[in-house]
Every structure is written in structure tokens, then in C-alpha cells.
Write a structure and sequence with these properties.
Length: 102
């Protein structure tokens, strides 16, 4: 479970992140900032599949949006910013993150 939230985007209804929002999001994160991860996009029709599937990177930021309002799953509001060795970044949700292959 994450303890290192560095940046959160406030919900549209919030003027700024509050301590209770930060605490709630902190308990929902499956991964930590600095963690090395592998991207898993198995759907070959996904536009990001060819470019990112199987790539490894590090989590550099954890963001929040309002996706949970549509899905009912608070975990869906967490977005992980992944930075690859070439400096490129990708914002992606938990479903597409896997442990690295050494």
C-alpha cells in the first residue's frame, strides 16, 4: 500500500485537496512512487498496445480523477504516471500495471 503520494489533482467539486481526501486516496493506492513496474496492455486493438505493452518504467506521480463516479470503484480514480528510461511519460490506471520482469 502506498505511503508516498506526491501530487493529487483535486476533484472538480473540491477547491483543493483536503487531508481527508489525501488519506482516502493514500489507502487506495496499490503502488508506490519510485516503484518499478511493467505495462500490460493485452488488447492489441488498444492504440497504446504497440508502443507500451511489456515496457518497464517507474512510477513518478500518483494522480486522481473522477472515474469512480462512473464505475463505482474508487480504485478507478487513481492514475499512475509512469516514466520510461527514454524520459517519455504515460498516465495509466491500475489495471494495466504489473510487477516488473527482471
Amino acid at each position: 500500500m502506498s505511503v508516498g503520494i506526491r501530487h493529487l489533482v483535486p476533484r472538480i467539486t473540491d477547491s483543493k485537496p483536503t487531508a481527508s481526501n489525501l488519506e482516502l486516496i493514500d489507502t487506495m493506492c496499490e503502488h508506490d512512487i519510485g516503484e518499478r513496474v511493467r505495462i500490460d496492455i493485452p488488447d492489441e486493438t488498444d492504440p497504446d498496445h504497440d508502443r507500451y505493452h511489456g515496457e518497464h518504467g517507474r512510477i513518478t506521480d500518483i494522480l486522481e480523477d473522477e472515474a469512480d463516479m462512473l464505475t463505482g470503484d474508487k480504485q478507478d480514480s487513481i492514475i499512475y504516471r509512469i516514466q520510461f528510461s527514454n524520459g517519455e511519460e504515460l498516465d495509466i490506471r491500475h489495471q494495466a500495471i504489473r510487477p516488473p520482469i527482471r
